[in-house]
Known about the structure:
It contains 18 helices and twelve strands. The protein is an alpha/beta fold. Strands 3, 5, 6, 7, 8, 9, 10 and 11 form an eight-stranded mixed β-sheet that branches. A two-stranded antiparallel ribbon has the order 1-2. A two-stranded antiparallel sheet has the order 4-12. A hairpin with a 5-residue loop joins strand 6 and strand 7. Helix 1 packs across helix 14, helix 6 runs antiparallel to helix 7 and helix 8 packs antiparallel against helix 9.
Amino acid sequence: MPERTATGRATRVRTRGRTRPRVGLALAGGGPLGGIYEVGVLLALADSFEGVDFCELDVYVGVSSGGFVAAALANGISPTQMYRLFIDDGADAALTPGVFLRPALTEFVQRAASIPWLALRATMQWLRDPLRTGPMESMATLAHAVPTGFFDNRSIGDFLRRLFTAAGRTDDFRRLRHKLFLVATNLDTGASVTFGAKGRDHVPISMAIEASAALPGLFPPVLIGGEYYVDGALNKTLHASVALDEGMDLVVCVNPLVPFDASGASRNGHLTVKQLSQGGLPLVLSQTFRAIIYSRMKVGMENYRRQYPHADVVLFEPDREDADIFFASIFSYAQRKRLCAAAYNKTRQKLASRAETLGPKLAKHGIRLRRDRLSDPTRVLLDALTDVRPLHATDGERSRVRQTTRDLAHTLDHLERWIETAH
């Protein structure tokens, strides 16, 4: 266990007479696409960092979809295994878009049942004072019948319960080998609540993720202990302070949501549409939400530097001109795989460009950048997933193994598409 200072902050863990830097991970939300992006980033980091195991960190903090990934890592599910479970279209791909998009029929029925009473109430209000009570006030009364969410998050909870109760895993915060914190928002008070902290660690991990990911309008609030909870990103984006308060020396942060720079992407030839309003309400809402989340996160990052001067916080996020991430669709497995591969490749590029400053910072915490891998232009996501290269192979042999593996994967993809077309 870490030692505690007089202020309650944890110091570095002592191992065989020496201190070991404490490393944490903070993952922001971003819906299913955000989770896919985070898996791609983690695959790149695991492939490029030496001296750290992302299933053996000291603290994990997750918000919304980041809670899925954080809880999986805390349960010993590696980024490679997450790719097989959440993204790959093979036999193990249990997390399909249908899990997220199942209609909230119970919510619909309950709200529909209230319409007759609400209509009578609105009518009585109008009859009592028809000259002063307008139609808009009556409509406001009927608005109580609008569902609080259109999709059923219980299907997500069911999937997670099955995942975390498998052999070697747990749905209980208290039985994890490493600390896990999942942040949600209390709907009635507006306060952030950290599940996994003392006093709230009895809540099942799967239910805490349901609450943390209950984005208002999409999913109904989640009832836990007589109180309703919604998405944890409503107050803060990353909640990296939860890990820093645990005395982490280094916190690696991943934020999938950044505002999209359509003008810049158009100037650089990455996009033909210069104005997002041409994409209708969904794109306008997405950009608005991203801008709010991002500006708040930047303020938080500045606060971390002032409040925790002895800790290092390293952030990874997409480029603002990345059209692939902004316009990706979760309904196509090909899109999901392409998005994950793009996150992997672009994270590698950022690591290579930041190597001179990032390398020494990571070295303080016992982590070395594998510059040989970062400088390898032929290395792709498949290499990180398979890592089939012989230990003592020559460069030519490694290149042939990688090419053979890629050719095989390419052939299998074509075969799968041919079979689907034939059916």
